[in-house]
Amino acid sequence: WQAPPLKSSAKQTQQFLDNLSFQLTHAQQRVINEIKIDCANNSPMLRLIQGDVGSGKTVVSAYAALLALSSNFQVAIMAPTELLAEQHLRNFSLWFEPFDVQIIFLTGQLKGKQRQQALEAIADGSAGIIIGTHALFQDAVTFARLGLVIIDEQHRFGVNQRMALRDKGQHNNSKPHQLIMTATPIPRTLAMLNYADLDISIINELPPGRIPVVTRAISADR
């Protein structure tokens, strides 16, 4: 399989970084460079971003979205709950404010005329970023030029669900790049690392001022 090479210009990259209200950590910059290298190739990226809650996985995924948008491709961002999808909508709307990009929010709650307008914008390519829940891989959803799929909390989705969204970007011999995020790798995720050609990027640094996450093992009798 092939995938569309995704790149952004130095001007677009600087515009994106200047619009952030914070500095990226060294770990975030390292992971961004790994994603840039993957996306510049014409073979599909399949990369896992692993990092504690608050480590800044979402803004790294937003940079990946910038690569796709700059290359005239659409981005689909799938979250397991409407609450999480709404958080992504707020963040991506803020971070991409300087860019002329239409962001569509698609969940099961969207009905009637609003839903029809959203589906038309996705199908004709006028929507650049599409954020939603399981609604993204329903039969009625057709993407014009899907170049990147971002899946948050990938352990909350089944294999077939992830593949259904990826296949919506299939065109001739081409498939979209995939970026998946998790704070809590489960055994299936570890199996994917071993057997499914999944690359991993770890954000092992918290932004300044964040309270460190403490992980403890507690015995069963407690």
List the SSEs and their pairings.
Elements: H1 10-19, H2 26-40, E1 46-51, H3 57-70, E2 74-78, H4 82-95, E3 102-106, H5 112-124, E4 127-132, E5 146-152, H6 159-167, E6 177-182, H7 187-195, E7 199-203
Parallel strand pairs: 1-6, 1-7, 2-4, 2-5, 3-4, 5-6
Question: What does this molecule look like?
Answer:
- The protein is an alpha/beta fold and 222 residues long.
- The mean pLDDT is 87.
- Helix 2 (26-40) runs parallel beside helix 3.
- The longest helix has 15 residues, at 26-40.
- It has a 7-stranded parallel β-sheet with strand order 3-4-2-5-6-1-7, sandwiched between helices.
- The protein is built from 7 helices and 7 strands.
- Helix 5 (112-124) links the parallel strand 3 (102-106) and strand 4.
Compact description:
With 222 residues, this protein is an alpha/beta fold.
List keywords for this structure.
single chain; 222 residues; alpha/beta; seven-stranded parallel β-sheet; 7 helices; 7 strands; globular
Shape category: globular
Structural class: alpha/beta
Q: Which range best describes the helical content: under 10%, 10-25%, 25-40%, 40-55%, 55-70% or over 70%? A: 25-40%
Radius of gyration: 17 Å
Unreliable spans are: none
Q: Strand fraction band?
A: 15-25%
Order of helices and strands: HHEHEHEHEEHEHE
- Give the beta-strand count: 7
Q: Roughly what is the average pLDDT, rounded to an integer?
A: 87
